[in-house]
Write a structure and sequence with these properties.
Radius of gyration: 21 Å
GO biological process, one term: folic acid biosynthetic process
InterPro entries: Dihydroneopterin_aldolase (IPR006156), FolB_dom (IPR006157), GTP-CH-I_C/QueF (IPR043133), Hppk (IPR000550), Hppk_sf (IPR035907)
Structural class: alpha+beta
Pfam family, one: HPPK
Number of helices: 10
CATH superfamily of the largest domain: 7,8-Dihydro-6-hydroxymethylpterin-pyrophosphokinase HPPK
GO molecular function: 2-amino-4-hydroxy-6-hydroxymethyldihydropteridine diphosphokinase activity; ATP binding; dihydroneopterin aldolase activity; kinase activity
Oligomer: single chain
Largest sheet: 6 strands, antiparallel
Family: Belongs to the DHNA family.
CATH topology of the largest domain: Alpha-Beta Plaits
CATH architecture of the largest domain: 2-Layer Sandwich
Shape: globular
Strand content: 15-25%
């Protein structure tokens, strides 16, 4: 298989408060088919390695304190967001911030590959959320940690059977940096998860808060074999690739993905808890996710774009109802304005 290499890419994590972040040196080899790109000279037939480079830098700069193994795994997951990449090898060196000796480093290498099918019983979310690191027999070849156990059966994955597909409503937004590109990348990433397909993409809206700050917002509908917890983890992984670290509530972010509804029904805490697995580096606790989303009924930045792609949309729950009836009662309805019908195609709007 053909390959593209990125070598000696440097980025520094933000670190925990009061401490200096670590500097990481990343090299990656991406394996993919380059024949079509070579014949047509078409960028769409290959990966945008500039975008991948920025994705890696943004990811690392958003990290606090992590094991080098975890950083390497997250970088590999971020690269696999580009659907053309079938396999990736990542090598990460962490420099000691307290030492001027470049030899004083920790070095880790991992390999990951995209699952071509679900015969192994692995959750399709592993492609985005990094769960394959924990649940398949294709373990990383971390140089500091060798796998000594014989191959064992993978843990049961939370994958719906083919006849039990879910339909999710996802709010997409952001308010700093190149938000449009981040939102487009999110659409491509989610559509590329095996067993999933984007069904609807709303027009792009602007939303103005009380302080006058503007955000961009849209809504997607997704058909998927993922269970709600795996959908949540997939969204967090895509956010992480754009520098939005899990558990960190930032006032400004280039990409925010919120799971609004799955199957137009209420999900109990017991149902969601039954889907949780450990270990899982981007996991969810029962308090992280409520379905339907607890505030969606009063947010025009969700209701307006949702109504555009589903005129008969319905939100269940104690404050639920037809979206067409909920929208006029949203307190911020006048603060959400249409910006573009064709934003997903790129170019100016």
């Amino acid at each position: 298989m053909d390959s593209i290499e990125i070598t000696d890419l440097r980025a520094t994590s933000r670190g925990v408060p009061g401490q200096v972040g670590f500097t990481y040196v990343v090299s990656a080899t991406m394996y993919l088919d380059l024949h079509a790109a070579a014949r047509t000279d078409d960028l769409a037939q290959t990966v945008d390695y500039v975008q991948i480079t920025r994705r890696i830098i943004t990811l690392i700069e958003g990290l606090e304190e992590c094991l080098v193994e975890s950083v390497a795994s997250r970088v590999a997951d971020a690269i696999l967001l580009s659907h053309q990449v079938q396999r990736v090898k990542v090598h990460v060196r962490r420099l000691n911030p307290m030492s001027s000796n470049d030899g004083d480093v920790v070095s880790v290498g991992v390999s990951m590959e995209r699952e071509s099918s679900n015969e192994s019983g692995v959750s399709p979310a592993s492609v985005v959320a990094g769960m394959s690191y924990d649940y398949t027999n294709k373990h990383s070849d971390a140089s500091l940690r060798k796998q000594t156990r014989a191959e064992e059966e993978p843990a049961p994955a939370v994958v719906s059977p083919e006849y039990n597909r879910h339909r999710a409503v996802i709010a997409v937004g952001g308010n700093v940096g190149n938000v449009r590109d981040a939102m487009r990348t999110a659409v491509v990433s989610l559509d590329g998860v095996p067993g999933s397909q984007i069904l609807g993409i709303s027009p792009l809206y602007t939303s103005t808060d009380r302080e006058g700050a503007e955000s961009l917002c849209a809504v997607l509908t997704l058909e998927t074999r993922l269970e709600p917890i795996d959908i949540y983890s997939a969204l967090k992984m895509v956010e992480l690739a754009h520098g939005h670290s899990p558990g960190v509530d930032l006032p400004s972010t280039p990409l925010d993905l919120v799971l609004i509804d799955v199957d137009d029904r209420e999900w109990t805490g017991e149902e969601l808890s039954a889907q949780m697995r450990a270990p899982q580096w981007i996991g969810a606790t029962q308090g992280d996710i409520q379905l339907p989303h607890r505030q969606a009924w009063q947010k025009a930045e969700i209701l307006k774009p949702w109504l555009d792609i589903e005129p008969d949309a319905h939100l269940c729950g104690p404050h639920g109802g037809a979206v067409s009836e909920l929208l006029p009662m949203a307190p911020n309805i006048d603060d959400v304005q249409l910006l573009s019908d064709s934003w997903i195609l790129g170019g100016s709007v």
